[in-house]
Design goal:
The structure holds two protein chains of two kinds. Chain A is mostly helical. Chain A is 75% helix and 0% strand. Chain A contains four helices and no strands. The longest helix of chain A has 24 residues. Chain B is built from seven helices and two strands. A two-stranded antiparallel sheet of chain B has the order 1-2. In chain B, α6 packs antiparallel against α7. The chains are: A mainly alpha, B mainly alpha. Chains A and B meet through α3 and α4 of A and α1, α4 and α6 of B.
Amino acid sequence: MNNKKLYIPLYYLSLLLTLCICIIPTHHIEQYLTLSKLSVLLIIINILLIIIFTVLLIKKGINKINILLPITYILFTIIVLIICILFNNKLVIPYIHYSYYIKFILINYILLNTYSLLSIKYKKK
Amino acid sequence: MKEKLKTTIFIISIIYSITILLLMLYTYTTSTNTIKLTDTKENITTLNNYKQRLNNIKPSPCKNSLNNLINHYENTSYNKKVNIKDKYNEKDWIVNYFQPINNNCNLDKETKESLSTKILTASIQFDEVLQKLYFQYELKIPDLNNRSLIEQNLDQIRYNINRKNQLDAIKTIIDLLEEDN
């Protein structure tokens, strides 16, 4: 499933989705809903990887790449969100699970970013 | 080398996504927001006995406060599966009834301390059961068989302690009111 043209929009769609997820828990002011230190660290790592990937993408372009990974990531994130909403209706404290599950989404996003970075075209000297 | 690393990350990501989703689904399906609680017939009989004793006491602010505590006891006297979310949203906790009793009844220091201990114990015991069910979002694979054997009994034991302490608190104030009467 190699498609360089489709990979870029899917990658940035993943970025948009991740940004939305980071905003949801911080939208609720309660103390227990603030992001954990680990989540903040993962966000910083992701931001750095996104910047590096975008710069290298503009300068060098990408090699052979599999679009299955961003699709899996998007599906994974959507399903996690759906289960969070289901949890929200079931449990006493609303939105608490967002701040818990966000780290799993961010770890997966690091994997996607690393994969994308490894797909950058490098000219052999 | 780079291609091998890419393939490894690809495989890790796919396996990771599937594993996390399966664990999350498992956590969701096994989490519960209901708890089975049973108040004993003995407790109900004791309460009815206290209510009869209270009827013979002349009206006073202290009696009114105690009546509110008795109403709370009756409202929380369960013999069914209780929905924790609904219960939590009611915000009807035993500690809410302590301050009016403290203000309206002539309690000496010793009685006040003993009463507050009973009410707090009743509250803590039951709140602990509720708290256990507040936070069931974590990814985990609990030993459900063991939990069904042990924790279910613990819930009932804690609820019994809650009932016992509430009844003791009611009795303490009735004794006090009867003395004043």
